[in-house]
Amino acid sequence: MRLFEVLEAHRYGSVHLCTDERTGLRAVIALHNTKLGPAIGGTRALRYREEEAAIVDAVRLARGMAYKAAISGLPHGGGKAVIMLPEREFDRTALFERFGEFVDSLGGRYVTCEDSGTSTGDMDVIATRTRQVLGTSKGSADPSPFTALGVRRAMEAIVRYKLGRESLEGLHVAVQGVGHVGYHLVKEVTRLGARVTVADTSAQATERARSEFNAEVVSTDEILFTQCDILAPCALGAVFNDVTIPKLRTGMIVGASNNVLAESRHGDALRARGILYAPDYVANAGGLINVATEHSPGGYNREDATAKVMGIYETVLNILQRAEREDVSTHVVADRIVDEMIF
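Given the sequence above, the corresponding structure tokens read:
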């Protein structure tokens, strides 16, 4: 991997590496841009087959966080941490203590929080070693409900724009992935009268959605190609590519996953098919908005956080309208808005 070429392609920034033999820690912290303020972004803890994959993951995700923070009007840059979990047995507490020291060594340039593979409990451990952590049990805790709320508001905006209606009632939403965020999203949209189809690699997760919300369950191979009004990817990234886009059977895409376009050109491919796409880092910004509120001078306030997340509706609607005026894809408009702010 040519690391500097990757960084230049994403207009970076800096990347920091840490290894610790005693705890087994191997971690990457990527800071994309700090023009608007200290970088904020979650810590992802997974097992990676190759260290290059972990670094690229951190770099791509940190860029997304920078754009997400800027488009949401937050006084923050974008960062992301990736911990390559050891293959051998390890002391999780000791590992996250050492990681907290790594975060602290950056002198406040990076503020971490929960992400895939980490929990509120892990944030509590990190907090014993640094103040640069959010989402602890004494703070805003689990951001998933706020991410789901923001995605729901993005759906309402895109439905108003495309269909001229104010409600999700009677619409069919297909949700790929019903883990933390996906579960709460299904709860949000069914409460408003939408019909839902779901898929997940976890049978327990899909059964929960079926029993609690009367969701139809299909296989993970089918969900992207389910005929529906709104397709909501809430699992892995890069799901829209040369193979999947020609087979999509939806008119709108609004989800919680990051980096759903395999390449930028796939946003144009969606537009060519008449599929309206709410840029992922705009639609899924609710969790970041919530946790960033904790970093504000006045401290965390749930009502303020909720009000800010509700504003995703106006942000998405403005992007859709500008894309029409400029005759370009929605992801191009979103990127233009952010580039004007941070470069």
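The chain has two domains: 3-64+74-126, 144-285+313-342. Try to locate this feature in the token string yourself.
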